[in-house]
Design goal:
Peptidase_S26; Peptidase_S26B; globular; Umud Fragment, subunit A; alpha+beta
């Protein structure tokens, strides 16, 4: 289970302690999904429903309007330089084009504003996550941190 705290926060709520389990995650964050007719059982059937952690390498595959489904995890361009990787929570069609809304599993809501995740079109999508390799990313993370000890900074 990988729906624990990040900096002692989960879905905008602060915790000193949190027993990591899907049931505990759902008791804190599930209300948002349930308001959108995504039940606990449905969420658990989504790909990567157990989330991911720092250090996991996410395998990305091409995405198109025909292979993106509710619950998929998309990598898309948001309003910052770094892409966002969040879960599809709504799909609709408008003017012959599919639109997607996403939400980070640990966020209290979807991000809004310019280039938000409330209305994403295919031109902003790089791909969708199809698998994860736990811990492999720590090789790069540790390498970058060791270099930083010597004053060598690698921009992300």
């Amino acid at each position: 289970m990988e729906h624990g705290l990040h900096n002692n926060v989960l879905c905008s709520q602060q915790f000193n302690e949190f027993k990591e389990s899907f049931s505990n995650y759902w008791s804190i964050c599930g209300y948002w999904y349930e308001q959108r007719n995504i039940t606990k059982t449905k969420f658990q059937s989504f790909p990567l429903s157990d989330g991911f952690r720092k250090g996991d390498v996410i395998i990305i595959w091409r995405a198109n309007e025909n292979n993106i489904k509710l619950g998929d995890t998309l990598v898309f361009q948001g309003n910052r330089a770094q892409p966002i990787i969040h879960r599809v929570v709504k799909i609709w069609e408008q003017d012959g084009q599919k639109h997607y809304q996403t939400k980070g599993d640990h966020n209290s809501a979807s991000i809004n504003g310019q280039n938000s995740e409330e209305d994403i079109t295919i031109n902003r999508i790089y791909g969708k996550a199809i698998a994860k390799v736990p811990y492999l990313g720590w090789v790069k993370i540790l390498f970058v941190e060791i270099l930083a000890l010597f004053g060598i900074i690698i921009e992300r």
